Every structure is written in C-alpha cells, then in structure tokens.
Write the structure tokens for this entry.
Amino acid sequence: MFALVDCNNFYVSCERLFQPKLYGKPVVVLSNNDGCVIARSDEAKALGIVMGTPAYMSEGLFKQHKVKVFSSNYTLYGDLSDRVMKILASFVPKMELYSIDEAFLDLSEMLYHDLLDLGIKIRKAIMQNLGIPVTVGIAPTKTLAKMANRYAKKRFKDVGVFYAISKELINEMLQATDVEDIWGIGKQYAILLKRNGFRTAKDVTKIPAEWMRNKMSVVGLRLWNELNGVPSIEWEYKPKDKKNICKSRSFGFSTSDISILREAVSNYAAICALKLRNQNSTCRYVNVFIHTNPHKPELKQYQGSITLQCEKETNLTQDIIGYALKGLDIIYKPGGYIYMKAGVMVLDLVTENAVQLNLFDQRDRSKEKQLTATVDKVNTEMGQDTVRMAVQRFERRYRLRAEKLSKKYTTDIKQILKVKI
Ligand SMILES: [Mg+2]
C-alpha cells in the first residue's frame, strides 16, 4: 500500500499559521513579482477566484470581499515544507518527495495493520507539531493513492483520510473520478478517452489492455495497470541530481544600467554555485543571458547569451561569478537597450569526486574549498548571504516586486514572532 500526503492550500496555510486571524477568511498568495494567483484558501475558491488569474484583474474582487493578499514567501514555505517532510519521515522508512507540499509514502514494508489509523495519526502529528492541515490518500498504487487523496478532500474533508482498502471502496472512488482528473493523464489523452465514450476512471479500467497500448502507448498501459491496482510507476526515493542548474528572473523594473545587471548576475551565479555544492556537483560550462522585454515591441529588442568553458570543473562561488561576469561583459549592449531579465546557467555537471586533478594547477584548490565550506557553514547558521562576494552588493536593486510579503518567521531570528504575556 502507498500513501499520498498533501498539504491543504499549502502556501495559504503557511501564511495563516502566523496570522491566525485569517482562519475562515479569504486569502490568496501571488506568484513572483506579484503576478498571478497561485494559492487560494477555500473561502477564496468559493468567491470564484480562479487559479492563475493575473492579480491586477482581480483587484476589485479582492477589495469587495476583503481578500487578504500575500506575495509569495518561498523562504517560509520551503522551511515549513522541510519540517512537514521530517515528520513524515519519522513514520515511514521510505518516501518520495513529490513536490513542495506533497510526498508519497511507501507502506509496503510496514507491519501496521490499520493503515486508516496510521493516516489519522500522521495527520494529527503534522497538525499538532506544525499546525498545517494535510490530507492523506492510501491505496495500492501511486495513481490510486493520488486519487484517494483527491477523493478524501471531496468526500471526507473532516476526516482528511481516505483508505481504499477494498475492491468496493476502490470502485466507488474510480466511479467518482472523471478521466481528466486522473493523475498524469494529460489533456489530449483525456479528450481521446472521452471521445471513445470513457468518462470515468472506472470506465478506463474496463478498456482492453491492447487498446490502451495502441492508442496511448506505454504511458497509457502503465496508467491502466496502476488504475487496476498493479504498481507500475517507479519510485524516486532520493531526488535525482539536476542535470543543469539555472537561476533567472525578471527584474522588478527594466533597466539599462550595467551595474544593476552585474549585481543580479553575480547573485544568480552565487545561487547556482551553492546549489552545485549542495548536490556535490561541479560544472564544466557557465552560461549567462540577458534580454529586453519582448512584450514591448515599441522598444529596441535584444537577446544576448554566451556559454564559457571553465578552465577546470568548479563549484566555487568566486569562479562561477567570475565566468558569469566575463560573459555579461561580452554580451551586454549599451545604447538604449532596456533589459528586463538576466539569468545564469551551469551546464555539463560532474560529480565532485570524479573531477580529474591537474598536475600543473597553480591554485591551492583544497584551501579554496575549505574557505568555501566555512562560508557555507556561516551562512547556514546565520542566514543566507551573511558572508558574500563584494560584487553581489547588498541592495538587491534588481529585486522583484513583492509588496505584500510576510516575514521570515522561521528562518530569521530578527523576524521571529514576539509574544506579549
Ligand atoms: Mg497541496
């Protein structure tokens, strides 16, 4: 048996945790740069606020119904996500982090008899220790567990757990799920199935296997197996290392000032370098790119990108920043171009241990590595970028709009909540 644990309206739940007066009130969280709605409380959903609507289009609705609006606070969400996952890991030996607010649990090797009870305990533990509401779906395959989770949210909201233990319960759930709501089905296949008269997940289980393979390839066959209770999707117990790492953002405002571009590029490069070190990788190439705003055709348009080969595989912040800035100097075009986005990518990653040593290397790499490890340690303990390269500066002048940002309640000692007694 497998379980899917999913945090309910996760970003909204994180915000409410520190502002309890918002329980029962409509709350939404906006994407980067305060662009679109990316999370809604149940009350906001009931008002008809649709996922992905641009914020400026809903301003009237927000005002009218006193909707509380937040900029996205990924530092907070990331930290609370870690805590949720740690609690989950204390219950099961094997799990897969599926997204920031979802995890699959492998219950196959557990002696637990009453999995419904386990689901309820997990839910309670997360509520008690963190205050984040979650829903648990338990079923014989990943696809069914995902469906059980959705079904629990629809039918058993108060319990928050659905355990598809018997054929009858699985059938009930399959019957209640439309084909387009099956996990991983994709729009095209959903249309194909419907056109052939298959409306619910139950209908799909009755399709001959051959038809599925012919019309929907192995993906369809795998899905068919999963719906019929045969596990066919592989597990990723350890997150796969990324093949390349990219950090890019639109600026909060457009600019032609190269010093602002340098500040942004060096900060993005520093993030890439840290991510490389966190997965024990090094890179062989560094790419940097900048471009103007393509949605403003009345302005002069330009896109520049260049990839530089590193002298030697590296994950040191000073190296990656160095290459990125060298690249920026080459691609930057002055003369009336107004830039809105920049990015840094590190490519062709190699595991740190596999790096060849060079006999003629002039640099004391072990010393540099030690220094970097110390800087990382300081930054882990005292907050991101406490120690940084001078070129990264402090002002973050390229920063995104985030006018409604909540505090870093759990990761910055200066922003911790104060309680008056
Ligand atoms: Mg969720």
In short: Residues 8-76 form a domain with the MutS, DNA mismatch repair protein, domain I fold (CATH 3.40.1170.60). DSSP finds 13 helices and twelve strands in the chain. Residues 123 and 134 are 6 Å apart (CA to CA). The pocket of magnesium ion is lined by residues 6-7, 10, 101 (CB under 6 Å).
